[in-house]
Write a structure and sequence with these properties.
The chain has about 350 residues and is an all-alpha fold. The protein folds into two domains: about 270 residues, Hypothetical protein af1432; about 70 residues, no CATH class. About 60% of the residues lie in helices and about 0% in strands. Helix 4 runs antiparallel to helix 5. About 45% of the residues are buried. The mean pLDDT is about 95.
Length: about 350
């Protein structure tokens, strides 16, 4: 087969297989900067690869999902969360005959802008930098600007749209993204974190499966995999050959109630959050230090401080940090070296 025809074969297959509600790759609004098309990949496949090969994606393996630096390696990180979202999004899109490549790329990029220490870091950036700061807008900034020292990843408009619209609101209406594939990512994100955060909380001894209200277990399932399967199947059953992505009222209500249960029992004032105040103080101290000493940041951020302002540059730098990097930087700046050596004895 002529290698020059591979991309065209993929595009032809979209026409013959995908639903009439799917977004066809050939209809993309394109990229902000000129590029040479790849002969072996469609544009969304190329976006997926650009994200996977980015530094921001690799850093996700050392960023908190819920539990801050757990000793048990089986707890989710922001990386494993991202992979679970991508897997769920692919399953739904494949069943609905939507553009799986578009959904996969957006899912892999949806949390690239997350701060260290999860939503605790997000709270600090709102307090120190801008009340409107959000990880999803920061994810967009990563792919449009921060990667490659200001060049960004030059992703397609549809993937960027799905990234910035993956969060917020509930699972009823007003989903934000311009494509059904982008809406699927939003559903996949919630399905993933609701279920894996319960799984991690049970592993940590904060919850037992029996603590989940009986009615929710009866509606959604008794096990981790059972609940995911119920939610995913319900989305597929209620969205097939439809211009909208939705759940049934029963499953949507139960999913929303399960998320509320998590906030009450895990996300607020639980053992999972026992170190959160320390993490927030650490990041606030780093922000204050680099705001006063922007020249101490890496060259790219120091230079951008002169262009976009110190606060913006410091926020970008701290948001890019992994949990371990933030802790090491704090030790370097604020803990005398002799004390660090003593603590290692």
């Amino acid at each position: 087969m002529d290698g020059g025809n591979v991309r065209d074969l993929f595009l032809e297959r979209e026409h013959s297989f995908l639903s009439k509600y799917a977004f066809l790759t050939e209809n993309t609004r394109g990229r902000d900067h000129d590029y040479v098309p790849c002969v072996n990949r469609t544009e969304f496949q190329r976006d997926r690869d650009r994200i996977i090969h980015s530094k921001a994606f690799r850093r996700l393996m050392h960023k908190t999902q819920v539990f801050i630096l757990p000793k048990d390696e089986h707890y989710r990180t922001r990386m494993t969360h991202t992979l679970e979202v991508a897997q769920i999004a692919r399953i739904i899109c494949r069943a609905l005959r939507l553009n799986e490549d578009l959904a996969e790329a957006a899912a892999l990029g949806h949390d690239l802008g997350h701060t260290p220490f999860g939503h605790a870091g997000e709270d600090v950036m709102r307090r120190c930098f801008d009340p409107s700061f959000s990880h999803y807008r920061q994810s967009l900034r990563v792919v449009e600007f921060l990667e490659h020292d200001g060049a960004g990843l030059n992703l397609t408009w549809e993937v960027r749209d799905a990234i910035v619209n993956h969060s917020g609101g509930d699972l009823r209406g007003g989903h934000g993204a311009s494509t059904l594939e982008g809406v699927v990512v939003k559903f996949a994100d919630k399905i993933a974190y609701i279920n894996h955060d319960i799984d991690d909380a049970i592993r940590a001894g904060i919850l037992s499966n029996g603590d989940i209200p009986k009615e929710l277990r009866r509606t959604l399932g008794e096990t981790h995999s059972g609940r995911i399967n119920t939610m995913v199947t319900d989305v597929i059953d209620n969205s097939t050959d439809s211009p909208t992505i939705k759940m049934s009222d029963e499953i949507c209500d139960a999913t929303t109630e399960l998320r509320r249960f998590l906030f009450e029992r895990v996300y607020i004032d639980s053992a999972a959050k026992s170190e959160e105040s320390k993490a927030k103080e650490l990041l606030a101290r780093l922000y204050e230090y680099f705001f006063l000493h922007p020249d101490r940041m890496p060259a790219f951020y120091a230079k951008n401080a002169e262009i976009e302002g110190v606060g913006r540059a410091v926020c970008d730098y701290i948001s890019s940090m992994t949990d371990r990097y933030a802790i090491d930087k704090y030790k370097e700046l604020f803990i005398p070296e002799v004390w660090q050596r003593v603590s290692d004895l």
